[in-house]
């Protein structure tokens, strides 16, 4: 019910009485007094603003660059998610030419709306694994980031809801693991006839593809039913979950259509600059406004914009900043470094069936029928995300020996994490070659889930309205390329299971020609893209070289933290919205404890 009532408040364009949503920096906002100012209303910022404002004594302002159009049909209908890339909901970033992609630049979507990237993503809900978080604990020297210590925060994020077809979901997840949090999740309704074949494969090839009852238990290896941030056939974002339940609080103001251009010091404490000042504007040449938080500024602008704001504020590598005429206030060379992401590749086969989702992508009549059905009662093929009800994580067999060939240690966090992700999909998938006008397809998306290459986010100019230069170093070395090769080989092994005989016809397009190692490398480099999981660009760590302390404070400053996916020292072996929510849950706890002192 909280979800519904909050949704309604936002949808009607709330006034101060109902929920304090402002369409711009009005006089009321500029005269406001706030203890904490949160910059960015995505996964991290939405959860932070919500959890902090649970305490009525903490006055919170959330500033979001994008709009408050959270009920937009393209965002709400799970199956229309692809309409959001390069739209009014996207920052429209592109990467620098990626050496690992034969010099191609790729689209790099990021949500530009309340809810941030949770409002434009593919909704798959992953927590990460025991080993992912235990590695965070090791590199930060803070046991508080271990799976065991984080458990109360991990279990505070989501709760399971019934799928739209209300089928019996016994055996599709472990209900005791999903009880408490504001983010509603669900498994798919039973629409895809390939589900049965995927599940049969787990019985026929159990060594490589064992069935996993619940990949959110701490061990993600194996094939499992996807859990999606979808409630009753509607997308769930940080805005429709965390924020919706907070919008009626008198101590939370939210201002949209407003970009933070920098943070600035308001004094010094123990010789350190106190970064409680925030500067913002609505347009590149419009007026700049400022506000000062009494306690903290939290940057939650995401892995690309948070390091950008820090550099514009004089926090970063001094040589880099001075080459753009920016005066260094805190010399922190780690800001913008360590950017990494999951490489993505769609591998498609032609199939002996007409019952696939391909027509939704190329037949306007079929697409209109599906939308009409969704509008009638939120069922049908558009009520689920991305054409797959199960997915899986695979470990490369004999990993230690495999990685020794490249002179590196196993890059996965440990045995509970995969090296490769597989997403079996009931339609054609390619980000480079458009869907053919005819034919029906099955695809397996392969992703490098434990990458070793590292890139960076750097300044293009000193104009805050200019995009930064973004280099996620996708397939940036031979190790990551080899992991993707193993992913494609495992995908080929998957469809060799008897379950697929009479269904799979042949590998489609350049995939079918990728029979030698060289041809496979060329196919991978020419066709890979991103799972849209950039992280790590302002990482926490115990070493002085890490830009954040283990409690997420920007090193060398007072009053400034980062709470978003940029803080991850290593990318989790799964999709990143869940880990960002989990990070924010603990961050809110850390901030509230500090504010009490
Ligand atoms: C297309 C796509 C598909 C994805 N699919 C999945 C998936 O299926 N499952 C999954 O788990 N993850 C997925 N992700 C990733 C996931 O959504 C992100 O990892 C997560 O949202 C990161 O949270 P964040 O808080 O770091 O950043 P975001 O959620 O991106 O939030 C950052 C917010 O800050 C705002 N902002 C930025 N700069 C400023 C500024 N200067 N002033 C004010 N506000 C600012 C932005 O507009 C945005 O609202 C996907 C992402 C994309 C883009
Ligand atoms: C949804 O996306 C489609 C395709 O880009 C666009 O034509 C349509 O206007 C969008 N709908 C809304 C409500 O924004
Ligand atoms: C992204 O591109 C779309 C389509 O051109 C545009 O409507 C939108 O305003 C752009 N986003 C930003 C943040 O400029
Ligand atoms: C769902 O299926 C399980 C296992 O088949 C069964 O034990 C249970 O009774 C079923 N639940 C309902 C509500 O039918
Ligand atoms: C497009 O979809 C409609 C409705 O499902 C169907 O009747 C029609 O045959 C399809 N057209 C083609 C070319 O497949
Ligand atoms: C949804 O609407 C369609 C079309 O009216 C109908 O066939 C179907 O039974 C409905 N499903 C549910 C769960 O109400
Ligand atoms: C893994 O190593 C073991 C012994 O070290 C060997 O028997 C086995 O064949 C190897 N498996 C693969 C898939 O290489
Ligand atoms: C960012 O990475 C690129 C590619 O590795 C490198 O050439 C460049 O020097 C880096 N920039 C900074 C400021 O670190
Ligand atoms: C296609 O499937 C039908 C059954 O649906 C089967 O009779 C036929 O042999 C299959 N064709 C191929 C090429 O596998
Ligand atoms: C596959 O290889 C053949 C023979 O070299 C070539 O004719 C064909 O164009 C290639 N197909 C693709 C999709 O690259
Ligand atoms: C891969 O892309 C390059 C251009 O970057 C092109 O020259 C080459 O033919 C492509 N390879 C294949 C197998 O299509």
Automatic annotation (TrEMBL):
Annotated family:
Belongs to the GMC oxidoreductase family.
Which cofactors does this gene product need? FAD
Keyword list (alphabetical) reads: FAD, Flavoprotein, Signal
From the UniProt record, which GO molecular function terms apply? Answer: flavin adenine dinucleotide binding; oxidoreductase activity, acting on CH-OH group of donors
> Pfam families from the entry?
GMC_oxred_C, GMC_oxred_N
Q: Where is the signal peptide?
A: 1-19
Q: Where does FAD bind?
A: 113, 260
Q: What name is this protein filed under?
A: Alcohol oxidase
Fetch the PANTHER family from UniProt: CHOLINE DEHYDROGENASE, MITOCHONDRIAL, GLUCOSE-METHANOL-CHOLINE GMC OXIDOREDUCTASE
Domain Glucose-methanol-choline oxidoreductase N-terminal spans what residues?
302-316
What does UniProt list as catalytic? 533, 575
């Amino acid at each position: 019910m909280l979800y519904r009532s909050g949704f309604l408040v936002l949808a009607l364009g709330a006034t101060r009485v109902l929920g304090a949503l402002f369409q711009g920096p009005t006089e009321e906002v500029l005269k406001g007094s706030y203890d904490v100012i949160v910059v960015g209303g995505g996964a991290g910022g939405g959860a932070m603003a919500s959890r902090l404002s649970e305490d009525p004594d903490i006055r919170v302002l959330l500033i979001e660059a994008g709009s408050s159009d959270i009920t937009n049909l393209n965002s709400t209908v799970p199956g229309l998610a692809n309409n959001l890339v390069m739209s009014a909901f996207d920052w429209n970033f592109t990467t620098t030419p990626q050496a690992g992609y034969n010099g191609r630049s790729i689209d790099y979507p990021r949500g530009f709306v309340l809810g941030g990237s949770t409002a434009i993503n593919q909704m798959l809900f992953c927590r990460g694994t025991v080993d992912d978080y235990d590695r965070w604990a090791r590199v930060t020297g803070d046991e508080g980031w271990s799976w065991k210590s984080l458990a109360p925060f991990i279990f505070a994020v989501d709760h399971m809801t019934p799928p739209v077809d209300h089928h019996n979901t016994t055996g599709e997840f472990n209900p005791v693991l999903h009880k408490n949090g504001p983010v509603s999740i669900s498994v798919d309704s039973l629409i895809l006839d390939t589900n049965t074949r995927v599940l049969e494969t787990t019985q026929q090839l159990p060594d490589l593809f064992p069935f996993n009852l619940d990949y959110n238990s701490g061990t993600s290896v194996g094939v499992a039913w996807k859990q999606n941030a979808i409630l009753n056939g509607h997308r769930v974002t940080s805005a429709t979950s965390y924020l919706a339940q907070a919008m009626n609080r008198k101590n939370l103001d939210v201002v949209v259509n407003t970009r933070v251009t920098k943070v600035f010091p308001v004094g010094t404490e123990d010789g350190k600059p106190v970064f409680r000042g925030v500067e913002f504007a609505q347009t590149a040449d419009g007026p700049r406004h400022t506000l000062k938080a009494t306690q903290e500024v939290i940057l939650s602008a995401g892995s690309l914009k948070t390091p950008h704001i820090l550099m514009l504020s004089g926090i970063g590598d001094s040589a880099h900043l001075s080459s753009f005429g920016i005066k260094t206030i805190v010399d922190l060379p780690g800001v913008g470094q360590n950017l990494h992401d999951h490489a993505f590749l769609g591998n498609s086969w032609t199939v002996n069936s007409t019952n696939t989702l391909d027509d939704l992508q190329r037949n306007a009549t079929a697409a209109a029928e599906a939308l009409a059905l969704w509008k009638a009662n939120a069922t049908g093929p558009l009520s689920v995300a991305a054409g797959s009800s199960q997915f899986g994580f695979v470990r490369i067999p004999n990993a230690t020996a495999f990685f020794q060939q490249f002179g590196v240690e196993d890059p996965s966090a440990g045995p509970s994490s995969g090296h490769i992700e597989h997403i079996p999909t009931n339609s054609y998938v390619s980000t480079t070659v458009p869907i053919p006008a005819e034919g029906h397809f099955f695809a397996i998306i392969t992703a490098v889930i434990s990458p070793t290459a590292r890139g960076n986010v750097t300044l293009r100019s000193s104009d805050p309205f200019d995009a930064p230069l973004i280099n996620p170093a996708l397939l940036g070395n031979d190790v990551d390329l080899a992991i993707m090769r193993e992913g494609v080989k495992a995908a080929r092994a998957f469809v060799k299971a008897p379950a697929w005989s009479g269904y799979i016809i042949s590998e489609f397009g350049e995939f079918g020609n990728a029979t030698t190692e060289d041809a496979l490398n060329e196919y991978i480099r020419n066709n890979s893209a991103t799972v849209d999981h950039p992280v790590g660009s302002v990482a926490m760590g115990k070493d002085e070289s890490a830009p954040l302390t283990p409690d997420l404070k920007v090193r060398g400053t007072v009053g400034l933290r980062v709470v978003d996916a940029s803080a991850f020292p290593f990318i989790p072996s799964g999709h990143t919205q869940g880990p960002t929510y989990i990070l924010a849950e603990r961050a809110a706890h850390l901030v509230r404890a500090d504010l009490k002192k």
